[in-house]
Structures are given as C-alpha cells and as structure tokens.
Fold:
Amino acid sequence: MMVLLLRWTFSSGHSVVQRQPRQGDPSEYGLLVAVATPTTFIEGERLRLLLQESGVRGTLVTTRQGPRLMVFPQDVSVARALLSNPPPGRSGDAGKRS
Structure:
C-alpha cells in the first residue's frame, strides 16, 4: 500500500496543487449575470461590498474585457437597483452598469 501511495505522490502529471485561474468571457460564468463593469478591481470590490451590505451575493471576476460584478439571475433587478440608487451615505458613482 505504501508503494502505491508513494508512486502516486511522486508521479508526474497529477498535481494536487491548484492551477492558476484562467480569464474567460463574461458569458462563461455559468448562471452568473454581469450587473456592473467597474473600471478597476478596487471599484468592483467596493460595489460588491455595497451589494453584500444589502443582502445580495455578488462575485467580482476578472474577464478578458476587464472586471465584472456578477450576481445570480434572481438578484439581477435588485442588484441593478442598488447600484443605480445606492443607500444614503454611499457614493453615487456606481460604475457602468451592464
């Protein structure tokens, strides 16, 4: 048994280390829908936190076209409303909406 374990551990081509994530098109993220197109990753994270504070789960992804803020289809209308009209005390500049 030990021989098989060592052979698997030191064999080539079977890495247990996670690969670098690859960038894809915005349409390659399954069910997720882009609701904002921030110009920087920092702006995108700020927008994601705005959604999170309101109870909407968002994911910030890096696509070939730049950062995108993605949400599930059932949250699209709520997310777009929050981003276009942020709650009081939040910045009104919410980036370009998709």
Q: What stands out?
A: The helical segments are 2-9, 41-53, 76-84. The longest helix spans residues 41-53. The chain has a mean pLDDT of 82. The CA atoms of residues 4 and 10 lie 10 Å apart.
